[in-house]
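User: Show me a protein chain along with its predicted structure.
Assistant: Here is one chain, sequence first, then structure tokens.
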Amino acid sequence: MVVATLVALASPAYGQSRRVSLTPTPTPTPTLTPTPAPPADLTQKTLETIGPLEKILNDQKPGKIWPTNPLKHAIRASVKSGVPANTIVLLLLLPLVALVIAATRQLIGIRGFGIFLPAALSVVFVATGPLVGIGLFLIITVISTLVRIALRKLKIKLQYLPRMAIIIWSVSLSVLLILFTAPIIKYPPMANVSIFAVLILALLTEDFIRVQLGKSIRTALDLTMETLILALISFLVLTLKPVQAFALLNPELLLALIFVADFILGKYVGLRFMEYIRFRKLISS
């Protein structure tokens, strides 16, 4: 009996069964789903924004300073001294944005509120994103219009500037309430809205109300929608990586081409595209 037990303990099958039973069962490791990185904000001095722009500068040999490369050397000297590369890109692209807005208005016929406001609004879209920017603008416009109607219904007579101060007070309060709901909404772009974006949107609201007072709500809505269209087109121009790279690598050529294009555009006195559509029956006859 004892001999049989010892033989069983010494057998290979028994050892293998014991080793198998002592092998720990591997525990499954949880797989982490990578969260998508937020898009780089060209208006902020961050590594995601400045890094690629500085790499573009470092990969190019600017050549001699005179006579064709003074801006290239000035840009590199400014970046080395601490000037953010994204600020330089925005300043170089601002004349291009103005040219795009002017060409869109002069050749197509989209009006909007001037040329400065759509350009500034496009920078707001770069900072906040077009969805957040348009959403904030719609909220600010609705609040300001409701306050203006309420003051008129209550027959409260105020001068223009104090009335605009009350409207800005209501706009500030409404934006604060929106920011207070950011922890509930859990939408990071909404929590990162800067005062710069709110001020630009307030400027657009002021023009909206001025047109309402001078003309009609329909005209104000049309001009506002056209301003948003111009701002979205300019936003696309500002966010195109090839355009940013071309502006950094060829600033002299870019500014010269923009100046010539502005001069040629200023000489155009023909009909706009929307006017051709509007008067097509008269033109065909």
